[in-house]
Amino acid sequence: MPAEETLLELKRRIAELLPDTVSITGVEFEGSELVIYTEDTQTFVDDGAIVRTLAKELKKRISVRPSSDILMDPEKASKVIHDIIPEEGGIKDIYFDMDKAEVIIEAEKPGLVIGTHGTTLREVAKVIGWRPNVIRAPPIESSIIKSIRRYLREESEFRKDFLKKVGRKIYRDKTKEDEWLRVTALGGCREVGRNSFMLSTPETKILIDCGVSVGSEGTPYLYAPEVLPISDIDAVVITHAHLDHSGLVPLLFLYGYDGPVYMTQPTRDLTALLLLDYIEVSAREGKKIPYKSSFIRDTIRHTIPLKYGDVTDIAPDVKLTLYNAGHILGSSVAYFHAGRGLYNIAFTGDIKYERTFLFDPAFNGFSRLEALVMESTYGGMNDLQPSRREAETNLKEEIERTIKKGGKVIIPAFAVGRSQEVMIALEVMQLEVPVYLDGMIWEATAVHTAYPEYLNKSLKNSIFQGKNPFLSDIFVQVNDAEKRKEVIDEKEPSIILSTSGMLNGGPVLEYLKGLAGDEKNTLVFVGYQAEGTLGRRIQKGWTEMQFSNEGRVVNIKVEMDIATIDGFSGHSDRNQLVEYVRRIRPLPSKVMCMHGENSKCIALASGIHKKLNIETVAPMNLETIRLV
User: Fold this and answer.
1) DSSP letter for each residue of 295-333
2) Strand partners, 81
3) Which of 72, 340, 437, 438 would be 498's cystine partner, CB 3.0–4.6 Å?
4) CATH 3.60.15.10 in the chain, residues?
């Protein structure tokens, strides 16, 4: 049955199941949801059993929204909200989610906005038509989040048509009787970088991640026969925002892709931040820019954000669920259910199977799992890391030693994840020196505070109670080259936390140029340094760096101390990776090890096989593995 006929049948069934008093103005597939439009939303709010009954009977995710003709103009609605809600509520921002016909009210005191037993909010809804949703205002304003909200509001008409198109494609009839499932490795196998996999059934093609190799600019094998034509891909799923997983998603739209991109909302915001920085840095360094910023906007307007744990149809024969991966904000383990009980496979992306300063451990409580595609960054026999607490102690000792000499500590860090972990560790140390934050770190931190529900419980509670470690007085933002020079030239000891984490660009290079020649100073690595990056070369013992300066090459001696503090990584070490698999019940029948150097992938696959007696493989790029 075509999608249109299915929709007509669903409309008929809804009319039968609803009370005669409830009028329906429209029923549409929008993405994975069946959306019911009504002028009588309050009936659904008052009687929550209606939606549950419909979902059970129709076996669809149901969303109820007010009809467009009862929605007040957003500008007028904003004024009404300010008129009704007491000033003491501290409204900081109001924005309209056109996809859900919802108005989100950010307030310093949500309780005062909601009112006793929700009376104030009900009054707001009655007057403006929009469904109000009150959240606590984040303590740091994020410019990227504001820009994305504004852009999506401008694109509301496109979004409505796009979601309808996606919905009809998801709920189309299956055209093939065969059942099989294959995984093709397009990048990220026996290497770190350019992560990309194709999950294929007779009916569906799903691309998981589409990253770039930072340092070498390597790209996935998007010209492989399994991928082409790119316009035939049904869905793209992004596990997290780091460029080795998301860096080339806009390229897909350049090549003709026009479908949905699934990820969590924090991943969407952080991906936009990192992609814009990526093309800006590429242009500044004279590298070829892989795509224009318009294709980043295209990615944003095609993104369908998902929450952890929501089971979502993304194709006629595939469901997707995202779970916490513990790696960075919004990072996900992508779990796919293929066919009607045919097969279940999960892609870990990057995981941390340990509670950190920021996140809970990666999820592995799958009800059923046949195959696991997992990262192997620290999968080698001797890849064992200290705990976060040990790492914090070791970092403190290194900093105190340098301060005693009157020197400065440079900590290169990824803007997303590692920087925030280190910030919390530094805040706990109660050091009496300033910590300068340079690059995208402050903006990335603002995004973290906008999504406290994705942080671990103790950090989330601290932020809600006004004890926000990210707002400590020790942190000083560096906004321009003049302030950067001032930090380099000042005689007093300090700590400099700056991007990029592998020294392959960004403001950290300016600090290196100015401070590397002084033996009082220390360069502290707190994260993985990939082959081919300046960070890896210095870590290996290189004592000289070459920089381009106004058209000529300048050699700089590395006289400063070099230290590596393990334990701050967002990746699990070997023991945690093996334990992650061991605790899955029942055990998967196949594990594929990727996202690691050649030796690490092979070592982890071998170790899991020996300890758990299950089939393992460390595939090469361009290999296709049939699962069913």
Assistant:
1) HHHHHHHTEEE--TT--EEEETTEEEEEEE-SSSTT-EE
2) none
3) 438
4) 189-381+574-626
Q: With respect to CATH, is domain 71-137 assigned 3.40.50.280? A: no
599/596 Cα distance (integer angstroms): 8
Choices 3.30.56.10, 3.40.630.30, 3.40.50.1820, 3.60.15.10: CATH for 189-381+574-626: 3.60.15.10
If we measure between CA atoms, which residue out of 187, 257, 248, 172 comes closest to residue 221?
Answer: 187
**The two structure tokens encoding residue 182:** 């294959």
Residues 170-199: tens digit of each pLDDT: 988 888 888 999 999 999 999 998 999 999
What pLDDT does 157 receive? 92
Identify whether the C-beta of residue 245 lies closer than 8 Å to the C-beta of residue 336: no
Half-sphere exposure of 417 (CA within 13 A, CB side): 30
3-state secondary structure of 154: helix
Q: Specify the domain boundaries for CATH 3.40.50.10890 within the chain.
A: 388-564
Closest CA to 439 of 309, 280, 599: 280
- Report the sign of the C-alpha dihedral through residues 513, 519, 521, 524, in that order: positive
Q: What residue has token string 């009404």?
A: 80
Phi and psi at residue 436, to the nearest 5°: -90, 130
User: pLDDT tens digits, residue range 119-160?
Assistant: 998 899 889 999 899 988 888 889 999 999 999 999 999 999
Express each pLDDT in 448-501 by its tens digit: 999 999 999 999 988 888 788 999 999 999 988 899 999 999 999 999 999 888
Average pLDDT, the chain: 91
Asked if 23 and 194 touch (Cβ cutoff 8 Å), the reply is no
Assess whether pLDDT exceeds 80 at residue 208: yes
User: Which residues of the chain does CATH 3.30.300.230 include?
Assistant: 1-69+157-172
Q: Which two tokens stand for residue 443?
A: 């903006």
388-564 has which CATH code? 3.40.50.10890
Instruction: Quote the DSSP letter at residue 70.
Output: G
Confidence band for 550, pLDDT divided at 50, 70 and 90:
low
Where are the CATH 3.30.300.20 domain residues in the chain? 71-137
At 599, is the secondary structure helix, strand, or coil?
Answer: helix
As a whole number of angstroms, the distance between CA 590 and CA 372 comes to 6
**Residue range 1-69+157-172, CATH number:** 3.30.300.230
